[in-house]
């Protein structure tokens, strides 16, 4: 169903996007401010259900890329992703009929909405990651045969770079990352130009709606004094993300974090009580694996989310701090993100992890998580 | 005068180009092989005198960029610069009527000839550096108001990147260098697209001819048993490069060299006799400054060239070795490269040197060089 997104939806959407960002995706708070400004100036945004998209509509996804740690210090004006879209349209000699997110997490749930509000383009309710991932080839578009190239990168001065690596989406990521680093660590992009048919065949559907549902569930739980993760589990059970497991609860006792090679990389340690086994969460922008005393509780591409233990507010990797009381949850990804092709693109081995992918719902059958 | 370059010219041209490269510009031997192959396949190349260029001819210079140390290990096929030209033509929607060198040194005297032979385009007898420099904004085109953007970078797989930083040629260099590093340290480019009028207003004229004259002078000296630097000085006295000074003669006793940030950077030490003051030559791809016992003998943008003491063969920075007997010479650059605007772009301060620019002919009046 095609629907309209307005100012009143933004708090819930940002909260849900932060959770689906699994620690990464860039700060959704900043994105929310940009969307709010764009809606106030231009009116509400049309969210287009992928099934209602014409096969021949030309869709250009838009996003921010870079290290989330840098986004906190270098806030975009809102014009940059539109400049990237315009640079790609100019290069292709063809106008987009819609934009959409490349990932449904953090600021990248918001960037296409900013573009939609500013240009009047509808935003397709779907994305290419079904969560957030750190690299541009880690998209279901790529897994299922769409070329990311040509892609455009733009900065706030109107400078642009167009990269064309034909079918090689990994090389596109490699070159785009180099440019993003030289632009100061954050840039805005337009990539994976494709038809409506390709969107329907390769995107994870209705993830803007999903983010809203997740955000609303957390709010509802707070208002009704229900345990937020119970409310979340109920909400997710009827979606493509049907399994939620509480993995651990405790205090953040250590965060090691470096902004390196254009990413925020590191590890967080969570302790339930002194002397007890500690939960280690390794991240590259996003949370990749959660290990308790040598046992893996959840691993990428399943979602690992760190929530405030009190109010279930999602905590992004760049905002993790010593002393935070947190509840760590695992959520199953949709089946299309667990196929052999998908795991070859964004499974544990793609991040240098030794783990085999095992679904979070099976890991939690094997091991009873200490809570 | 427009003339034709054929196989018989290539040895002299490569030798002259190596000298004008002032230690950098990439290995001309590899470039010579590429041009010879292209001429054998396609016939001789038309060299177009800049004064005979129509004002509205569309000229796109072509070149290789990267660290000369890498070129030795990663030899191009010859197709790459043509792919860069084609990528820029496609982006602009306009075909070039001629190509030309961006620098008259090393391999970059040869790359546009490869393009000329392969495409049939004439090659303008002029360039944008009057020697070799390590960075893309260090061109007389840039000094006198031409935008380097849009520029294209291509690799051997047909991948391409188009960079558009509007008037900001330094930022163009910064982004292009990042891409070149990620392409393995060497790439091929098409940049500073401009009119024939702009070529005439901003290029250093007749530097392909100059390289040929220099290469021939060295050969002639060898054949007639004349001191090569005397023969060279005679040849240069009637050109825009009218002053040659022999700065030092001795043995290379140390070479410190790193391939870093996409450049070959380092320092060579030359000794005339044990216990005597040593000549230190600092380089960033090209030789930047020659200092003898604390006294500067020549500094960028004047040319500092290291020649084999016996046969005056030019030695590039990546081929400097312990034990080589060398004669180091300084050559004055044309006046258009010594203006305040020019020195602000490629004077000593642009390379982090503390030296003020003083012409080599005045430095040699002040100090009598020890030979």
UniProtKB/TrEMBL annotation, chains A, B:
Domain (S-Me-THD-like C-terminal) ranges: 168-360
InterPro entries in UniProt: S-Me-THD-like_C (IPR048350), S-Me-THD_C_sf (IPR024071), S-Me-THD_N (IPR010318), S-Me-THD_N_sf (IPR027479)
Record domain S-Me-THD N-terminal: where: 9-164
Full protein name: DUF917 domain-containing protein
Organism: Saxibacter everestensis
Lineage of producing organism: Bacteria, Bacillati, Actinomycetota, Actinomycetes, Micrococcales
